[in-house]
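Hey, why these numbers?
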Amino acid sequence: MKKISLFAVMVLLVMITSCKKEIGTSETEMTFETEKHDFGTITQGDKVDYDFKFKNTGGSDLIITGAKGSCGCTVPEYPKEAIKPGVSGVIKVSFNSAGKSGKQAKSVTLFCNINEGKKVLHINSNIEVPEKD
């Protein structure tokens, strides 16, 4: 009986160890050209876009499960399909400055299968209000 139990424990340890090594070598990573963009000075009411370019620099498919802007004026678009290792992609962020003025700092949170579970991108702008005639 003890021989069978000892053998079962050894087999289980070998399986756990081999699975752990396999997971460690195939982590997913997302590398951006930049994680921040400044639109500079824009006029109130302007709608501006920026493409955040990234690459899957990990060893397994990158899956973005969702993206959320910090407010309704900041809208992200992201790839819905899995991104293979070595493949690049784009997160398009649109910002609507209607009703805003002065310095603005907004963010977009991406929910994905990287180690951290999410990635945050930032946009800034300075909004000037046009003079009324």
Q: What stands out?
A: The two ends are 94 Å apart (CA to CA).
